[in-house]
Prior knowledge:
alpha+beta, two-stranded antiparallel ribbon, 3 helices, 107 residues, 2 strands
Amino acid sequence: AEEIPSDSFPLGIEADLLAAEPRRITLEPGDAVVVVSDGIVEAANPSGEQFGTDRLRAVIEANRANDAHDMTRAIREATDAFAPGTQADDQTVVIVKRHIACKLPKA
């Protein structure tokens, strides 16, 4: 998995802040863009340890062959198993995945 660093402010921090210039990326068949809120990586277990980006990356890698719905479910299940109980922050997951292109038969 490749992490694309952000050089912009988080969404919703302040209405007057402008976003950075948009960047274009190319998704090859099977590639996915995974965006999560801080509530995912900061989900804490009873010991106070956070879920973190390493665990998130491992779940994404283990589920990269799955569709976006199943990837989202895997992230939520892993987060819930790691930090059971009431969540302290929103836990938002957005996944955009390019499917493998297929050729349609000629008419």
